[in-house]
Write a structure and sequence with these properties.
The protein has a seven-stranded antiparallel β-sheet with strand order 3-2-1-10-9-8-7, with helices on both faces. Strands 4-6-5 form a three-stranded antiparallel β-sheet. The protein contains eleven helices and ten strands. It is an alpha+beta fold. Strand 7 and strand 8 (288-293) form a beta hairpin. The two termini are 27 Å apart. The chain has helices at 3-17, 64-78, 88-92, 105-110, 128-136, 152-166, 170-180, 216-220, 234-242, 255-262, 325-337, and strands at residues 23-30, 33-44, 50-51, 58-59, 187-188, 230-232, 278-281, 288-293, 297-302, 307-313. Helix 1 (3-17) runs antiparallel to helix 11 (325-337) and helix 2 (64-78) crosses helix 7.
């Protein structure tokens, strides 16, 4: 194994040993070759202690935006059934706030729609349908296309658009892609028998969340939402990354649309948002892209070399008051890719 990979894995192990995070699973690979798959620490530390394994299921939080929604949306962009300039009302086929009539699919994918960052949905009704409609009826906080405002609502709406295009619920539409890629453990709402990493002990509770979604707004939508709710393993996410990159891209993804998704679409706004992705490092030969998740998850993909890194940690267990992930990510990114992490 290359020294840079070893150094990264040792750094993660040190963070676990020093109890900065309870546990983690890391995967590094390129194409069909998995250079490393390493589990360390524990999947849960209270009220019991159970070890982390290579196949532990993680609540991947905002990685759901890519794995659960972008992966389907990009296929409809490629086949022409979803124009990038389609408006939100056209694409979702439902009533929206009057000020959302000019929001486009591009705006949703780049977080330039001007939507509120997040909003609880209890006030809108008891059903998932009522709660999604309530979000669609909310006024925006900014004019579309004028600034980047990271919003969970953007991908909640994209998830509903994907479900409409597929003619089936979001969890089934997403699973069509996962199964095609061999991601057989990836799911929403995992079975009760699944071995999952624990997340937070919520206020007023005595036991940590485990096996159900950590994100409150996704929980309010039944555990199935475009912004959060996907559970996956490092091994499955490695398959996802490999399917987007040389030398083994999957034929289900159009290479030009993948390249377009990885390109910085918002440089003119002083940001680095692609279509769903974050363009961490821009280079003529191909960007290094990725995303992070609130629970402690992250993906990095080098679109030029095909190298990818998956890091899954349960940093919110037993409390979200843990800022350990940024320095771990920074060390890993800069060690593996040799460029600054911002």
């Amino acid at each position: 194994m290359e020294k840079r990979f070893e150094d990264f894995l040792k750094h993660v192990e040190t963070a676990v040993r020093e109890k900065r995070i309870p546990g983690a699973v890391a995967a590094i690979g390129r194409g069909d070759e998995l250079y490393a798959l390493k589990a360390c620490g524990n999947a849960i530390i209270t009220p019991v202690v159970e070890p982390m394994t290579e196949d532990t299921l993680f609540d991947v939080a905002s990685l759901s935006k890519l794995v659960g929604v972008w992966s389907g949306i990009v296929q409809y962009l490629a086949n022409g059934r979803l124009p990038l300039d389609a408006t939100l009302p056209e694409a979702i086929g439902r009533r929206t706030h009057e000020k959302l009539k000019n929001v486009t699919v591009w705006n949703l994918l780049t977080h330039t729609a001007g939507l509120v960052p997040f909003h609880d949905t209890f006030e809108f009704g008891d059903t998932r349908e009522e709660r999604v409609q309530g979000l669609l009826d909310l006024a925006p906080v900014a004019e579309p296309g004028k600034e980047v405002v990271y919003s969970d609502l953007s991908f909640i709406f994209l998830g509903e658009i994907l479900a409409r295009l597929a003619g089936k619920p979001l969890e089934e539409a997403a699973a069509d892609t996962w199964r095609a890629l061999g991601m057989n453990d990836t799911c929403f709402n995992p079975p009760k028998t699944a071995y999952c990493a624990a997340t937070e002990i919520r206020v007023g509770e005595t036991l940590p969340v485990r096996g159900t979604v950590h994100d409150e707004r996704a929980d309010q939508l039944g555990g199935v939402a475009g912004h959060a709710g996907v559970f996956s393993t490092a091994r499955d996410l490695a398959r996802f990354c490999a399917a987007l990159l040389p030398p083994t891209p999957s034929p289900i993804f159009d290479p030009e649309w993948v390249k377009r998704s990885f390109a910085n679409q918002t440089a003119h706004l002083g940001s680095n948002r692609g279509l769903g992705w974050i363009a961490y490092t821009e280079r003529p030969e191909g960007n290094i892209v990725g995303h992070t998740g609130f629970t402690g998850t992250s993906l990095w993909l080098d679109s030029a070399t095909g190298l990818y890194v998956v890091l899954l940690a349960n940093r919110v267990h037993p409390s979200r008051d843990n800022d350990a992930m940024y320095p771990i990510r920074k060390f890993g990114y800069e060690t593996i890719f040799g460029v600054p992490y911002v």
